[in-house]
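Table S2 (text version). Query chain:
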Amino acid sequence: MTITDIKVRKILPEGRLRAIISITIDDQLAIHDIKVVQGESRLFVAMPSRKDDNNIFRDIVHPISPEARQSIESQILDAYTRHIEAMQAEVEAEEAGLL
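Corresponding structure-token output:
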């Protein structure tokens, strides 16, 4: 299983929810609505979920092994960090009159 694409769909600058992400696996399966969340001590990834009849959130899709979860999370957080850095560089370039 290889993540072949990561798209940062939405950035949320305020609050704990920081971004909404979509990934493509093996150019064949898309997973939408993955969340980047600011936790107490670090950013983490929350998989797509929905509330059941008992008002408990259940993941719709999730990695089975800890290794898969760590791999997916690190790739998503790397892509998120690169996206934020690119946005900041663009703002700085605009402020410097380079764009």
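Notes on Table S2: The radius of gyration is 15 Å. The chain has one domain: 3-95.
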